[in-house]
């Protein structure tokens, strides 16, 4: 008997679910034989947890550009619901050993632990320093790092243990979309900030007066444009494009390499951009500040997919580095026919919905950074291909256990 989430509605259903799950609650080492039904339940649980966390985090950025911070704000509570599921799943994996190998388990445990440590540190930071104006603060970065390792462990566990087929590919792509969201999350400060600063220049404000006054008092300034610039864009202009190219778009390269199908990078990037596009009206129509949406990522994903058609690794890396850098800066438009529509997409985004400052001179460093990251990925993928398949630890998927 298979217990589905939709069936768990009544006390009797809960009893059946408990009767199904209880026999699996036994101590075991990571990598033990995992029943197929249990494996899917665990990883669909991860999908539910990450969905709650993403919904909460997306609301959180907009909330903090409007209201003074509150520990019990609705976005925090929504994110905390997802975190509670994460903790439960981490305990289940760690105690039973089901659904993960040792490396995946360690990544999940260290990631979850880092995140849980970062939460009280962030609360202390706000108590000591008042308003935390930037999403790039040390305590926030620690939250991203914890989530980074957490999702990396989940991706590894699913990649090694899921059966071949469409579901394996789709869920793997979904996990990479969550991974991309976490990697790009701090850059939303600039995406919200550039439009909030533009609103100020046009004689309007999105933030409530209490938030503006609190920020001004913390900076020791009156509420003027200098204060608004420090509140909305507190980091150097080069950070957004360089981070987007070296950090965020490296995720697309890894996603394309692991999924192994043309279009994987485009779909992962497109899924994230679609999510940001859908929540944009939901937030703005309810009175929250708008943000610039990173539409350029869709074209970036397409260029990554095109780059993987080139069979020579070094040429593939150079093509990818040049192409993705052009997406962020539009600096290489004349050098490649593909760059024409890319430049048009960036120009259209700047004209229609706005984009954070690009700091064009840093394009060289962004391109070199992605090139190094891409070559490192190629090197690691080459080493993995040289290892015998039987040397790869992977959880074994067994037939579903019958319900007594």
TrEMBL record:
Q: What is the name listed in the Swiss-Prot or TrEMBL entry for this protein? A: DUF2029 domain-containing protein
Keyword line: Membrane, Transmembrane, Transmembrane helix
Q: Which residues cross the membrane?
A: 41-65, 77-96, 103-121, 141-162, 169-185, 238-255, 262-280, 292-310, 317-338, 358-377
Presence of keyword Coiled coil: no
Output the superkingdom of the source species. Answer: Bacteria
């Amino acid at each position: 008997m298979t217990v589905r989430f939709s069936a768990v509605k009544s006390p009797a259903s809960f009893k059946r679910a408990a009767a199904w799950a209880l026999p699996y609650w036994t101590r075991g080492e990571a990598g033990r034989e995992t029943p197929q039904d249990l494996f899917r339940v665990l990883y669909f649980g991860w999908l539910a947890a990450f969905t709650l966390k993403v919904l909460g985090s997306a609301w959180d950025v907009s909330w903090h550009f409007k209201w003074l911070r509150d520990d019990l704000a609705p976005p925090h509570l929504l994110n905390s619901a997802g975190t509670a599921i994460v903790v439960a799943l981490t305990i289940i994996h760690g105690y039973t050993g089901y659904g993960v190998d040792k490396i995946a388990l360690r990544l999940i445990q260290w990631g979850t632990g880092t995140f849980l440590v970062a939460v009280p540190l962030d609360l202390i930071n706000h108590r000591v320093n008042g308003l935390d104006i930037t999403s790039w603060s040390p305590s926030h970065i620690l939250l991203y790092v914890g989530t980074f390792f957490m999702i990396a462990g989940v991706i590894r566990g699913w990649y090694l243990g899921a059966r071949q087929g469409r579901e394996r590919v789709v869920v793997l792509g979904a996990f990479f979309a969550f991974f991309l969201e976490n990697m790009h999350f701090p850059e939303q400060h600039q995406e919200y900030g550039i439009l909030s600063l533009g609103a100020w220049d046009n004689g309007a404000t999105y933030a409530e007066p209490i938030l503006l006054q609190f920020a001004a008092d913390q900076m020791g300034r009156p509420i003027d444009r200098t204060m608004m610039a420090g509140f909305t864009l507190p980091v150097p202009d080069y950070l957004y494009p360089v981070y987007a190219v070296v950090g965020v778009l490296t995720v697309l390269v890894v996603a394309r390499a692991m999924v192994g199908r043309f279009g994987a990078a485009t779909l992962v990037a497109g899924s994230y951009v679609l999510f940001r596009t859908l929540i944009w009206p939901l937030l703005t129509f309810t009175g929250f500040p708008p943000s610039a949406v990173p539409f350029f990522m869709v074209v970036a994903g397409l260029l990554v997919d095109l780059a993987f058609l080139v069979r020579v690794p070094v040429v593939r890396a150079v093509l990818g580095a040049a192409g993705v850098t052009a997406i962020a800066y539009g600096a290489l438009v004349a050098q490649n026919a593909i760059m024409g529509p890319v430049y048009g997409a960036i120009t259209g985004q700047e004209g229609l919905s706005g984009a954070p400052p690009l700091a064009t001179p840093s394009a060289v460093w962004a391109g070199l950074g992605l090139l190094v990251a891409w070559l490192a990925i190629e090197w690691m993928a080459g080493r993995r291909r040289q290892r015998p398949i039987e040397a790869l630890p992977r959880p074994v998927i067994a037939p579903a256990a019958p319900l007594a």
